[in-house]
Amino acid sequence: MSELKQAKCEACRADAPRVSDDELAQLMHQIPDWTPVVRDGILQLEREFKFKNFKLAWAFHQKVAQLAEDEGHHPALLLEWGKLTVTWWSHSIKGLHKNDFICAAKTDALLAS
Ligand SMILES: C[C@H](O)[C@H](O)[C@H]1CNC2=NC(N)=NC(=O)C2=N1
């Protein structure tokens, strides 16, 4: 079981450190379905979730939005027919913080709920 999904996001200040390359490698093992992507020079975590129709994707979109409000950490969400693309990164540090891995693990857990 991933320990990340038990953790709580902490306030991420602009001077917080981004995860190191070593931490990134270790944390990625805990969220194997996510892909690190670089967009506009910013390292992000992304996963596509597939559903049978729009309504199911929309319902999952709402669950992820509620998670974001509960954690005070917010993803980019792209809702399409049968698909939700979730992207996590920390705006304040223009990169990845442990919060992003916590939220990715919690997003995975929502799928099972
Ligand atoms: C004040 C508030 O907590 C901050 O603006 C939070 C809100 N949600 C956030 N979400 C993400 N992904 N990155 C942030 O830096 C961030 N900052």
Automatic annotation (TrEMBL):
<dbReference type="InterPro" id="IPR050376">
    <property type="entry name" value="Pterin-4-alpha-carb_dehyd"/>
</dbReference>
<keyword id="KW-0456">Lyase</keyword>
<comment type="similarity">
    <text>Belongs to the pterin-4-alpha-carbinolamine dehydratase family.</text>
</comment>
<dbReference type="InterPro" id="IPR036428">
    <property type="entry name" value="PCD_sf"/>
</dbReference>
<dbReference type="InterPro" id="IPR001533">
    <property type="entry name" value="Pterin_deHydtase"/>
</dbReference>
<protein>
    <recommendedName>
        <fullName>Putative pterin-4-alpha-carbinolamine dehydratase</fullName>
        <ecNumber>4.2.1.96</ecNumber>
    </recommendedName>
</protein>
<dbReference type="GO" id="GO:0006729">
    <property type="term" value="P:tetrahydrobiopterin biosynthetic process"/>
</dbReference>
<dbReference type="Pfam" id="PF01329">
    <property type="entry name" value="Pterin_4a"/>
</dbReference>
<dbReference type="GO" id="GO:0008124">
    <property type="term" value="F:4-alpha-hydroxytetrahydrobiopterin dehydratase activity"/>
</dbReference>
